[in-house]
Design goal:
Low-confidence stretches: 1-8, 11-17
Radius of gyration: 34 Å
Number of helices: 3
Mean pLDDT: 90
Number of domains: 1
CATH superfamily: F-spondin domain
Protein name: Spondin domain-containing protein
CATH topology: Immunoglobulin-like
């Protein structure tokens, strides 16, 4: 019995050794350094491109370079609210650098130069696709104290390539400078006065509808503006097209 028992033990040991050797040949137990690394490929972001066509509909108001901002939730300006410093600078001088760097901007773009009466220009804006995507526009009416035009918020989230939208725009008062129309305070070619001034001397200090130019021919003797600078709404037209 002892010899048989020893034989069984020896056979069992040989069987286990054979099984372990077979397991050692299994590819799944190769050292980690011999395995191919797993490469994770990040998807390329989807980029939307919009072409904006901007037309000046006035007879005597040059418009500053159109400023375009893409955002998701918080618009750069809203009717009835206080103008930001960036919008104040546009409305009083046409300078748009501060406005275009708005903290909520996903992307921004500017026309190359001012748009004269009856003229049209285009702006191209590229921005990564978002579930919520809006565009905002602003440009100064040059022969005024602080008038500007534009659109606060246009939802373009669902635009497909080739989709277009056309809107006309009204004249707004930034509420940052009194509408004195004096030669010292109107920066446009009709007066060549001061542009941006950090002092806010308008008693309202809110974005409202602009009351229009009075002019020196209509009783405001100190005005540097004449009938040629008067305007009616709408003052501009904006066409938005998704081109990519």
């Amino acid at each position: 019995m002892s010899s048989l028992s020893n034989f069984k033990k020896s056979a069992l040991i040989l069987l286990l050794a054979s099984s372990l050797a077979a397991c050692g040949d299994n590819d799944n137990n190769d050292p980690i350094e011999d395995q191919e690394p797993v490469v994770v490929v990040e998807p390329e972001p989807v980029v939307y491109e919009f072409t904006i066509t901007f037309s000046n509909l006035t007879a005597g108001q040059p418009l500053s370079p159109l400023s375009v901002i893409a955002f998701d939730e918080t618009a750069p300006w809203q009717f009835g609210e206080t103008a930001s410093i960036g919008l104040e600078m546009i409305a009083e001088s046409g300078a748009n650098e501060a406005y275009l760097s708005d903290e909520n901007a996903l992307a921004s773009a500017s026309a190359e130069g001012p748009i004269g009466p009856g003229e049209t220009t285009t702006v191209t804006l590229s921005v990564e696709a978002q579930d919520v995507l809006n565009l905002s526009f602003a440009a100064m009416l040059g022969n005024t104290n602080d008038a500007f035009t534009g659109l606060s918020s246009v939802d373009v989230s669902t635009f497909a390539v080739g989709d277009t939208l056309t809107r006309t725009t009204l004249a707004y008062d930034a509420g940052t400078e009194a509408n004195t129309e004096t030669a010292e305070t109107v920066p446009g070619p009709a007066a060549n006065g001061e542009g941006f001034n950090e002092i806010r001397d308008d008693i309202i200090d809110l974005i409202t509808m602009h009351p229009g130019v009075v002019s020196n021919q209509d009783g405001l003797s100190t005005s540097a503006l004449g009938a040629g600078q008067k305007f009616d709404n709408p003052v501009s037209k904006i066409m938005i097209e998704r081109t990519q």
